[in-house]
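User: Could you check the structure of this?
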Amino acid sequence: MGRSPKEIVLGMMASFDASGRYLASYADDAVWDFAPTAENPTWARIEGKAARQQVHHMTYDRATFLEMTVNTAVAEGPFVAVAYTFRTRGIGQLPGLEAGAPLRIEVVTIYEVRDGLIVAQKQYSGPSLPDADTTTACDGQ
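Assistant: Sure, the predicted structure tokens are below.
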């Protein structure tokens, strides 16, 4: 028997880095939906793994630190809901933050897995906040 949807999602999250290798866990026609945030006040959608890879590299090629800490993960059938803390440094200027400053975002994402691949995700993110906790970790990288 193959991996469960929860194992697939958590494995993808464990492989998240600037290279974009985590995208191997997604179907070619996967869809990413992003709820409005303070920085981006409208829903955003990315359709297809190739489009997501372009956005990923535009966003994270400058990053000097990326980390996701899973706080809660719940699975029901093909759906997996994950609450996690995302920390990064070096992704550029965001409103109200110094360029390259360490930041923290609290996120809840709902994933749908089919045939061993993630086919959809809907992400709800809190505001990008300054994060003193990444300063030490980032300086050591």
